[in-house]
Amino acid sequence: MATEKNNIPKLDPELNMEVTDKLLRDKPHIGESSFGKYYLYNVEKGGFEKSFFAPIEIHEVLQANKLKAGSEFKLKKIMDQSKPKLELALVAASSTGNGNHTPNQDNLKEIMLQCVRDSADIVNAVKEVPF
User: What is the pLDDT at residue 93?
Assistant: First the structure.
């Protein structure tokens, strides 16, 4: 029975379907098989633990962005020159987390705030619009 417990289902997104996944561990298990080097991540999808064998490109993005347990990302499988390829999109960290929140360094919040301020200035400058 112990071997059944270790057989975690493989994450395999359907074609053109975007799925949100959450890392369950800080680092992947890195190994080698007859297919070459692999990067095995444990992720949660829909409340269930899945095994995700990340292609090197996806692994490098996850590592470069220092994703940790609890970090979320989106995967989408697309067709690229008649073979499937995975696309990755990072999900912004929640500020309501467990204290392990790392502030987003992309400055988008400040840019958005400035856009709202600029919009308010524009509305105030147009006297014909009743607000």
Answer: 63
